[in-house]
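Handout, page 2. Input:
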Amino acid sequence: MLNYYSYPHKISTNWVTFVHGAGGSSSIWYKQVRDFKKHFNVLILDLRGHGDSTPTLKDTFNPKYTFDSITSDIVEVIEYLQINKSHFIGISLGTILIRNLAEKRPELVESLIMGGAIIKLDFRSQILMRVGNVFKSVVPYMYLYKLFAFIIMPKKNHKNSRLLFVNEAKKLYQKEFLRWFKLTSEINPLLRFFRATDIKIPTFYIMGAEDHLFLPSIKNIVAKHTTSSLFVVDNSGHVVNVEQPETFNNQTIKFINSLAV
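Output:
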């Protein structure tokens, strides 16, 4: 089972589950937990191979890394805690996982909040993935990760986000990084399916105005999917919850509360 931290609320029956991206950990939500636990029951977790969920020989994880198997890890925690339904908040690759969870187990999902969402890889992103595939076995993974982080978050005001994710990624082993990188072979078909399918679950995209790789495709998808909405945060790049936490928290809490009206 994944490592997790839960913060029960004395009154609220609403759960909010936070899912980080590749190379991160539950610690990237440190600017969210204090605000959210005032209003909701909160669950944060470390994906397999990240944070304190680093596999050992005794772990029971399915050795094959797929989006479905990693999604199943999250569901296992939800069911273990007997959470009937939750709002799910993801960042970056975490948005793919919670969108996949909504497809596989929609009865568990109250809403989706997609920060720095990935719904399509543009030409630059495709090139980035191909470069990584060519060099992943010969170049130390931290060099590749730092390159990816800089291309996705290139501006001076993105520095804190880059450093946070790079420092978290240092906790991974080369073997673990390669397992996660192999997931890129699944991304295009999965994202194509997501773009074509309006899942009919309230979905709130919150994107940085400077998220140059992914924002354009999100604008397109919101125009097509009837239950989706978008809020663009000024002066922010890809990791919007870290760069503009106050705006992120206010807008996402407002969205969750609006669903109870």
